[in-house]
Structure formats: C-alpha cells, structure tokens
Amino acid sequence: MQKLRLFVVESLSPLDMLEGRTEGVALEKICKIMGHDVALLDAHSSNDLYKYCDYISSIDRTNRLRHPLCIHLAAHGNHDGIQFGRDFINWATLFEALDPIIKDMNDYNGAVYLSISACGAGEQQIANIIQSEIRSSRTFRDDYIPPEYIFVTKGSGDRDVTMWDDSAVSWTLFYHRLAKLRHPVRDGTVRSLLNDIEKATNTVLCSFRWNRTCRRYERY
Fold first, then answer.
1. Residue 158's pLDDT band (boundaries 50, 70, 90)?
2. How do beta strands 37-42 and 5-10 pair?
3. Among candidates 41, 56, 142, 153, which has minimal Cα distance to 99?
4. Taking a C-beta distance cutoff of 8 angstroms, is the pair 116, 126 a contact?
5. Which CB contacts under 8 angstroms, 24+ apart, belong to 144-147?
6. Which residues pair with 122 in a beta bridge?
7. Strand runs (DSSP E) across the chain, as ranges?
8. Nearest to 117 by CA among 32, 6, 5, 9
9. Helices 23-33 & 164-178, crossing angle to 10 degrees?
10. Whether the predicted pLDDT of 103 surpasses 90
11. How far is CA 116 from CA 19, 30, 33, 44, 162, in A?
12. What share of the chain is helix, strand, coil (3-state, %, to 5)?
C-alpha cells in the first residue's frame, strides 16, 4: 500500500457539529490507522476555504517518494454549488477559491487529486470551468496543470442526494483502495474501483480524468 497525503477541508453546519455528523473525523481516524498522512481543516466560511486552498498549494516537494496528494472537500450542497457556513459558493466561485491548487501545485512532485463530497456534486461544473479556462488562456504552460483526477459523489442509491454515513463509508473505502493502486493510476483501475464501491456501499462516485494532450476532463 502506498502512503497518501490527505487534506480534508470540511464545513459542518452547527447542527451537524452538535450531533456529531462529521465525515472528516471518520476519514482522519481511519486513514491514519491505515498509515496515511492526514490533516483535518474546519471551514466555517468562504474566507476559510480561500485561506486553506492557498495554504495547501504552498506544499513543498517530497524528498524521494512521490506520494499522491488528495484534497477532500466535504460540505452540504446542491447542483448549484456548496455551503461554507453562511456562504453559499457556486461552482464559478469555488473555481476561484481553488485557483492556487489548480495553477500553483507545480512545486509538488506527486500526483494531485481533488475530491468533492456533497449533495449535488455529481452536477459540479469545476471540470468544465477548468478546461475552458486553460483552453482560452494565452499563458498556459505545461507545468501549470490541474488535478489529475476530480472525484465527486453522485448519490446514495438511486437518489440524487448523499447520506453522510454512506458518504463516510464510501470515501474511507475509496482511499483505502486508491492507496493500493500503482501511480500514476490507469483509467481502467479507477473504473473498477468506483464500480466496486457502488456495489459495496450503494453509493455512486464519479471520476473526471485530466487528458493533458487534449486539455480536457473525461468523465466516468
């Protein structure tokens, strides 16, 4: 199993916090048991999200091993965007917050993955916005590349919503299986992984792989 480096940026509602519905704590505890490096960052506003994205993007290169770096956003949401405290962020604004991660992660020499865990994330527009911006940019450089994969929740069962307990279980299983893949990962192995998670948890996860040659995301 290869070690992952995982930043979990989670935005709980006040009621979630009181009742202990936290996907991030579950991921932190279990992934640490599996031997991964994990940091849990609590976001209570859009300002927190901007701050954390800029901070994460400043990560240095690894010394020898190219450990994959996973950035996991967990929040409430719908097809229009996701919620951070009182601030509802649409996909265009989320793209702005993620700008340092999308453009300035070239100092990290391992693979970078982005996960979005929220109701409505299956309808995310981040992948489309990234590829549109890159294709229209006159200053595009090969070392400014977006996350190799974007992973999102599609829903629990046949519902277009994600239950927090299903989400916690499916993402824990996802990172456990992801660590066992050879990196860079192949599309076929990711598809098999996501199919297995759907069968085991009745939760659908989707992937968007960056095709560097065509400069676009391809969905599975």
1. low
2. parallel
3. 56
4. yes
5. 144/103, 144/104, 144/106, 145/105, 145/106, 145/210, 145/212, 146/102, 146/210, 147/71, 147/101, 147/102, 147/105, 147/112, 147/113, 147/114, 147/210
6. none
7. 5-10, 37-42, 69-74, 77-78, 81-84, 87-90, 112-117, 149-156, 203-211, 216-219
8. 9
9. 30
10. no
11. 22, 19, 23, 17, 12
12. 40, 25, 35
Give just the sign of the alpha carbon dihedral 118, 155, 209, 60: positive
Residue 44, token pair as written in the block: 């209570």
Q: In what order do the strands lie in the sheet with 69-74?
A: 37-42, 5-10, 69-74, 112-117, 149-156, 203-211, 216-219
Contact 202, 156 (CB under 8 A): yes
70/179 Cα distance (integer angstroms): 11
User: In the 3-class helix/strand/coil scheme, how is 14-59 assigned residue by residue?
Assistant: HHHHHHCCCHHHHHHHHHHHCCCEEEEEECCCHHHHHHHHHHHCCC
Q: Which residue in this structure is represented by tokens 């279990």?
A: 30
> Beta-carbon neighbour count of residue 213 at 10 Å?
6
- Quick: pLDDT tens for 35-59: 999 999 999 999 999 999 999 999 9
Q: Which two tokens stand for residue 188?
A: 């076929």
